[in-house]
Amino acid sequence: MAEPAIALREHPQIIELFTVLEQNGLHQQKDEVQALVSYIDGMEDKLSRMVDEMTAMRKEVDRLHDRSIQARCTFLMNEAENKVHQVSSMVSTAKNNTISAAGRMVQTFHEKGRAALRHAVQALRIPAVLTRMEHGFSHASQAMEKCAGRMDVIREELHLKSAGRALTGKEAQQVKELDADKGVLAKLRGFLTSCGKAFSEMERGAGRLAEKAGGEKASVKTELTALKAAPSGQHRADPGKDKAR
């Protein structure tokens, strides 16, 4: 097994940034960066467990007796795995960007002082980072829900096939194998549903943290609400205002 990646909170550049922020009394800025770091670490842990569960689930699929259904389940597993890898890549990118930004912020402090450091933390745009992650988790959750729905179709087909063989008096071994396959498909369906729920929780967590960290998402919501509430004539007037500027 590969060496586990170092947690973001334990990275030297992150530790140094926390120290510099603390020493300069920038406690709010430290809390904001710390919240992002803790969130990214938490997502890495959850995704690592999800990958382990997926590996175990693949072994279950490999034991399916019905080869046609096994092939279709393998295809679904590939789709789910690709989505997990996409999300993992997104989180990894956020992690690496945070490390790079931490190094730049410390360098900025040494070169330009405390005021520049405060501005550098704002330039990290933590709410925007979290909002992008929120969207990624949302897409992943929807993809897993679709996979679970397609899994239901496969399960129903296997159920009908099993019932048909039982009614026609096929060999008990064949019926037993199909019953075993039904158990595997139930596990696979549960796994896909669990992944979808996990991504939904990650999405909600990113959204809550984005609003708390600076309100970029909240400001967008406010703007959309205002647009919906405004009279249609006001909407038509806006382009004219833009031209006048």
**Helix/strand class:** mainly alpha
Report how far the terminal alpha carbons are from each other: 60 Å
Radius of gyration: 25 Å
Uncertain regions spanning at least 5 consecutive residues: 216-245
Number of β-strand runs:
0
Largest β sheet strand count, sense and barrel closure? none
Question: Care to describe what's here?
Answer:
This protein is mostly helical. 88% of the residues lie in helices and 0% in strands. It is built from eight helices and no strands. Helix 2 runs antiparallel to helix 6 (172-213). The radius of gyration is 25 Å and the shape is elongated. The protein starts with 11 loop residues before the first helix and ends with a helix.
Concise overview:
This protein has 245 residues and is mainly alpha-helical. The protein has helices at 12-23, 27-62, 67-112, 114-123, 126-167, 172-213, 216-229, 232-244.
Question: Key terms for this structure?
Answer:
disordered C terminus, 245 residues, 8 helices, 88% helix, 0% strand, mainly alpha
